[in-house]
Amino acid sequence: MGEGRSLAETPTWSVATVTTAMVAVCFLVERSIYRFGKWLKKTKRKAMLAALEKIREELMLLGLISLMLSQTARWISEICVPSSLFSSRFYVCSESDLEDLFAGGDSGPMSASNRSAAVETAKELLGLSANHCPEGYEPFVPFEGLEQLHRFLFILGITHVAYSFVTVVLSMTKIYSWRKWESQAYPMSSEDLQARRNRMMKRQSTFVFHHASHPWSKNKILIWMLCFFRQFKGSIAKSDYMALRLGFITNHKLPLSYNFHKYMVRSMEDEFHGSVGISWPLWVYAILCIFVNIHGLNIYFWLSFVPAILVMLVGTKLEHVIAQLALEVVGATDPCVGTQLKPRDDLFWFGKPEILLWLIQFISFQNAFEMATFIWSLWGLSSQSCFMKNHFMVATRLVSGLLVQFWCSYSTLPLNVIISQMGSKFKKSLIAESVRESLHSWCRRVKEKSKRDPVLSRLGTTTTSTCSLESTVDETDETNTIGSGTLSRCSSRASLEELAADISDVQENKTPHL
Prior knowledge:
Order of helices and strands: HHEHHEHHHHHHHHHHHEHHEEEH
Largest sheet: 2 strands, antiparallel
Strand order of the largest sheet: 1-2
Number of strands: 6
Strand content: under 5%
Radius of gyration: 30 Å
């Protein structure tokens, strides 16, 4: 009896209690996600709603992995392979670590027979043994080892989702602190031209002076060192925001009253939608980490420094982009410096601003991987195991990961959100979601009518131009031609009404007068 009891030999009240608890917890989580999604839909945050759907997909994937491991663990553990294929060189813990685990940290002398027995017992505790195979053979992966792997993958997925959520919360907190600067930019449009130019000159001069006055800024090598130190002073200053905002607006021929802050928020939500979840390259990276985690290499300890190096590298590059934009306008005579900023993809590595976002996503995953490894070690292994033996390494990994994640979320990622707009293209979030929906609805109606009515076939270019808003648009495409008029990048509902009126006029002209 005991552990070998079947369900038929278990009291029904205990089975019902466990079932009730599991169903209640799962139902609570499912309803919470549903309510949160309903609120996102009500507030028209479609990008965040899509991100929530990806979280659901990841939870479903984790559930499928959990189901497969639980159902196939016994079968996999019964697969026997020759013992010659196994070598202690590829163990996570060395044999001396296994001896210490069995002895409870006692460093007293042990005989050869006791040492061998200790190693085997410790292997059973860590799931490295439990041999049911004939002599000369060992299980491909023992049952207890599969259970520990099951727990690790589950913790990794949950930790990554939690880290992604915390990252967005901290980033949004920082970005929303810039909203007061956006509101201060509006009164300039109501002032007379000379007063507006004077205010612009003062702010843009501050921007140029801050980034181009240092002697190191003139040297192509020393400027990188200068940018490295600048990233620790803060995310961005008011003069930087005003200059970059004006440069973006003038470069893409938008009105000065355009809400650049809302555009950044929509862009951030879209990027979050694309970064939530563990993509297949990250799964491949996680598998490689598991494979090379051999005792003696301390691979997890050295990998814990990778996020710190990458976050400083990304921060330096972002500051370098700002410095380049400022240096290009040094000595300019135009009072509106913002109009002389030249946002373009060449400012970024390989001409791809998205590379910086990919690195930030990798930093978040690596930090989540470190935390998942620590939680898994506490949950499933002994405190004396090789994962937890060196307290200095464990503390260094945890502290480094937490500090880097906070800095990346609160400083580097918000800076990347605004600097990534300095490329040659703008994102589809340039136009509000409601306007995009109206455009696509109008696009579908024109398509249907043009199929039935040859007179409307001349409006066929509308569908291509309007539906192209789903992707990023190059700066060379200043306007999208629609029939006899144009649809500017700052499309509004008024322009939609005019276009609808044009279509009505065409239909009236086609109708014969009685």
